[in-house]
Structures are given as C-alpha cells and as structure tokens.
Amino acid sequence: MTDTPALAASHRTHYENFPVASWLCPAHLRPPIAAIYAFARTADDLADEGAALPAQRLADLSAYRHDLHACAQGLATSARWSAVFTPLQQAIARHQLPVPLLDDLLSAFIQDIEKTASAAGYADRAELLDYCRRSANPVGRLLLHLYGITDAQALQRSDAICTALQLINFWQDLSEDLPRGRFYLTEADCQRFGITRQDLQAAQVTPAMHQLLADSSAWAAALMHAGQDLVHQLPGRIGWELRLVVQGGWAILRKVQAQQGGNLHTRLQLKKGDWPGILWRTLRMQADQK
Which GO terms describe its molecular function (predicted)? Predict the structure, then answer.
C-alpha cells in the first residue's frame, strides 16, 4: 500500500489514500466521507480480496449495486452490508450525494474483474482514461461536492489529478499486476515501442521497455501538472489535504522514474524518510502562489 494521505482512487489500493476522519477534514464532513470510504473499500474488497472466483465476485458486486440503488431511494437494503449502507443512506439524504458517481465506481470494479478474468488489456489511452473516469475521478468529484465546489474548472482539474494518481498507482504496481494478468500499459503504447505481451510478462528492462515506462510516467506527470493548480482554488483544510495528496503522488512518481524499470520487479512505497521532502514541497506549493 502507498502511504499518501488522501485518495488516489483506484481499485485494489484499498482506498488507503482516502482522507478518512482526517484532522484536516471539518468535523461535519467526517461522517459522509467515512461513509463513502466504507462503500468504496467494501466494493474494492469484493472485487479483489480473498479467493472467490470471478463469477462470485461479479454476483456479489451485482447484489451490492442493487443495495446501492435501494439505499439511494430510501428503501431497505440487505442485511449483509447494513453497516455500509445505513450511514451511506444518511449521507446521500443529508448531502445530496450524486449517486451516479458511486455507481461509476462499481462499474469500474466490475470491468476490472472482467478484464482480469480474460487477461484483456486496454487498447489505447482513451479506453484506459474511460476506466479512470469511473475508477478514480468520482471520488474527487464526491469530495468537491461535499465542500460545495461545483465549477467546471475545479472539476476538470480534480479529474486530471485523480487520473494522474490512478496512473501512478498502475506504474507503481506493475510488479504485482503483470503476474496476475492485469495489463494497464495500453496495447497502442506497447506497439509504439515494439513491446509484446510476452515482453511485459518477462519483465526484462530492455531499452524499448525503458522508453515505454518513461513515456507512460511522463503521461501521468503531464496530467498531474494539468490539475495541480486546483490546490489554489480550494480553501482551508481541503486545500492542504489536496496539497499532501499531490505531493505524495509526485513522490511515488519520482521513485518510479528513478528506478528506470525497477518497478517491473519491486513495488515502490513511500517511507518515513520521504515525508520531510513531501511536507516541504507541500509548503512550497503555498509559498509559490504568493
């Protein structure tokens, strides 16, 4: 798991980056944030944890999705996930949470199971971005909704950051994903550099592989650059929370880039020694705006 302090958004990261009950979150927003986290975390576990076969995972997520829609309509849900849907129902009613964003998360989990079961990859960046739109971007938009931030520029920047963080998670997790038949390096990108599916699974750091990984990392960096000015649009605590998120993402990406292919064999993580630099860069984001 990564150790960044807010949600990167992604499958199988266990939403460990979600700002649950953080001291940076206003007290009145902690219950709905915790409810969204519990919803996403439980769905993540259904999709990825344990030894269930894909068919069972899909059946569980279908039942979970049914409960989401019942919950959103104020109806009774199954007893199986009452600890998730009782507080979520309260959060939806009190804060008018956009239910389609919650549903998008489930559609991404379902797609991930189906892709993994068939060992299918993503044809091109447009297809992968559509996955990120549903697996990562909804969480940023849900948090902005809770803070009452709805302008188009803020939403666009939030999407860029969330997608960048999702891509960074992909490049961070190559050593775990490739052996499990998860292919997030797109087929079009692999073809551009002459890399085959067999090359990916062999995990040999050839010059072509290095170029592919460097280009993919540059894509994530460009998205982060495109979105990170959002920190200056957000007031108070949420702005500081996002600064930490962004700098945590940058720290992981720098590690990926410095390894020059080492992420094919080792999952890179943040360590205690990384935090002084992250905190310094977080403060500089504020200073640079002045």
Answer: geranylgeranyl diphosphate synthase activity; squalene synthase [NAD(P)H] activity
3 within a domain of the structure (yes/no): no
Note the pTM of the prediction, 2 decimals. 0.89
Asked if residues 25 and 237 have their Cβ atoms less than 8 Å apart, the reply is yes
**49 Cβ partners below 8 Å, 6+ apart?**
none
- Assess if residue 13 is contained within a domain: no
Is residue 100 in a domain? yes
In three state form, how does the secondary structure of 25-78 look?
CCHHHHHHHHHHHHHHHHHHHHHHCCCCCHHHHHHHHHHHHHHHHHHHCCCCCC
Mean confidence (pLDDT) of the chain: 88
User: Which residues form the domain of 272?
Assistant: 27-287
| Cβ contact 19:6 at 8 Å | yes
User: How many domains does the chain contain in total?
Assistant: 1
Other Cβ atoms closer than 10 A to 288: 9
